[in-house]
Amino acid sequence: MKLIFLLGALTFLTCVNSFSNGTLPYIEREIDGNSRLVVSGNRFVILGGEVMNSNSSTPESMQEIWPKLKRLNLNTVLLPVAWQQVEKQEGEFDFSVAGSLIDEARKLNFKLVLLWFGTWKNGSSGYAPHWVMRDTLRFPRMKNASGENRPYLSNLSKNVLEADKKAFNAFMNFIKSKDPNADVVIMCQIENEMGLLGDSRDRSEAAEKNFSEKVPSNLIAHIKKNEKNILPEIREAWINNGRKEDGTWTEIFGKQNALADEMFMAWNYATFVELLAKSGKQIHNIPMFVNAWTISPDNPPAGSYPSGGPNYRMLDVWQAAAPSIDFLAVDNYQDDYAAKCKQFYRSGNPLFVPESCALVENAHLTAPAKAFYTIGEFGSIGFSPFAIDYEYFAPGHPLERAYEVLSNLMPIILKSKAGVNMRGFMQHKQRADNLDFGDIQANVHYNYSYKGYGLIIRLSKEEFLVAGSGIDVHFESKNPNFKEISYGLLQEGRLENGKWKTLRYLGGDEAHNGGGLHMPSPYLKDDAHCGMISAIKAHVFFVKNPNCKNSDIEFKNK
Ligand code: DGJ
After folding, report:
1. 0.85 exceeded by the pTM?
2. Which residues lie below 8 Å from residue 514, measured CB to CB, with a gap of 6+?
3. What angle do helix axes 398-415 and 367-378 make, rounded to 10 degrees?
4. Atom of ligand 1 nearest to the CA of 192
5. Arithmetic mean of pLDDT, 36-47
6. In this structure, what are the phi and psi dihedrals at residue 240, rounded to the nearest 5 degrees?
7. Cα(293) to centroid of ligand 1, in Å?
8. Is 436 helix (H, G, I), strand (E, B) or coil?
9. For residue 324, what are the CA distances in angstroms to 81, 178, 223, 273?
10. Cα angle at 169 between 163 and 170, to 5 degrees?
11. What's the confidence (pLDDT) of residue 362?
12. Closest ligand 1 atom, CA of 193?
């Protein structure tokens, strides 16, 4: 791990593919994956929340929700906009609800990420207008093996694509007219958790015909070019079938595990979405992304999760077919949260978690840990629990404090580089995490009754910022000439006007009597509501080994 000590020196000259299009938001890309969202010219991390599916459908229904979101210290709200609602009759568009949502967000100083619930939502086409769903000749469906229509519009139909594109373009034109500089609407999600459920592949005639044709040459070119980094299962299938550059889906990827089916579906979904994103961006060039239903447990058959959706298995196919899509986001509801994040953090795909923490009892209490981990460990685009408007997130919820601390430390977080001078951590089943910072390691211990979490940023050679809850942290030198670490001032505090303000000096019990940092957790197992989340600036000193023979070795605090 390369060390970078001075924050001022973190200019990240390795940026590639960065471009600025005036004031509009964009993704600043880095070779090693530390990509950042840039809004109004400044890096920005989403401390978000997604409202439930129906609650942004009228301004009235949002009225009582906005103040709750403010109290939770969100900087960004994720809100659906439904095709069936904005184009009730073909060609007649009404974006008045979206308009009032934008007005309200502007007043309250929220950013918005708008979710285009168009042709597909959770696999099916429940948000397509009735005039689309009723006309199965003009707007064909995917079919099962018995030839029956499924409630999924075909991803091969030009008519479906053109109808969705017309509506999506109208939506983009509307956003552009309402918010030309993207002060409010900073990104757009296209469709929602698309993919085919119940089968690995569409069995309609059109799909059967297409499946028997050749694999598009740009997919093969992508696989060849990125052979080392693509999903191992795709690489192996391609190699085992003779590294062919020409052939049908099963000739090139074989018949095992329905991989060819899933890739075929992914190619067709991604090609469809690419055409939406490309034309939408020509109108209003803001970042556009897709979100995936997480695959769990590990290897179920495609179709038990949405086959061909933008999940981690199909990331390579999506990247090849949909270059206008800025990233694939993961709806991460799983217990092995960290593993699911890592699956999406590869091949230059920045991490964004637009949905998390709902559905299962008490999952909402894990939101603070997931926010710290997602932002600290991956330098991510952001984090957002689903159903943020649900009663779980009641006054005093620990997410309020978590977002307050993260937003206070944001100037430092934004200058830091995940995996280099910044690490995030959260407890799953492990008792400890040892985080490598080059010549020093931070050993994080979790206590028994509470799942601790946090992030650590190295500010300089001997200065660290530690924020989180329910952890003990001890530093361990890896330099044999300076093996011992001694602790200087431990200052609990916050940033005020860009400067550190110490609110308490920690010693005794709060400092393991000089042996490290102790960041207490709530006293009771489920008592996460007291929100004991703090930030500590810690001075740690490398002590020279008295037995060290070489008297010339001097410590350089650089
Ligand atoms: C994932 C979807 O993307 C959301 O819109 C919502 O339906 C949740 N599942 C579950 O309620």
Report:
1. yes
2. 486, 487, 507
3. 10
4. 3
5. 97
6. -60, -25
7. 9
8. strand
9. 21, 23, 18, 9
10. 95
11. 83
12. 3
Ligand 1, atom 8, residue with closest C-alpha: 386
The tokens for 98 are: 């979206």
Query: Which DSSP symbol is given to 201?
Result: S
Question: For 61-70, which contacts have Cβ atoms below 8 Å and span 24 or more sequence positions?
Answer: 62/101, 62/104, 65/389, 66/104, 66/108, 68/389, 68/393, 69/110, 69/388, 69/389, 70/108, 70/110
Q: pLDDT tens digit string along 145-195?
A: 999 999 999 999 999 999 999 999 999 999 999 999 999 999 999 999 999
How far, in Å, is the centroid of ligand 1 from the Cα of 287? 21
Q: How far apart are the C-alpha atoms of 28 and 18, rounded to whole Å? A: 5
Pocket, ligand 1, Cβ cutoff 6 A = 53, 122, 192-193, 331, 355, 359, 386
pLDDT in tens, 502-549: 999 999 988 988 889 988 765 544 444 455 788 999 999 999 888 776
Q: Which of 368, 426, 369 is nearest to 400 (CA)?
A: 368
| 369 Cα–ligand 1 center, Å | 21
Instruction: Give dist(CA 408, CA 488) in Å, integer.
Output: 24
Q: What is the CA radius of gyration of the chain?
A: 25
> Alpha-carbon distance 24 to 39, whole Å?
7
Q: Which residue's alpha carbon is at the smallest distance from atom 10 of ligand 1?
A: 359
The ligand 1 atom nearest the CA atom of 291: 3
Task: Check pLDDT > 70 for residue 309.
Answer: yes
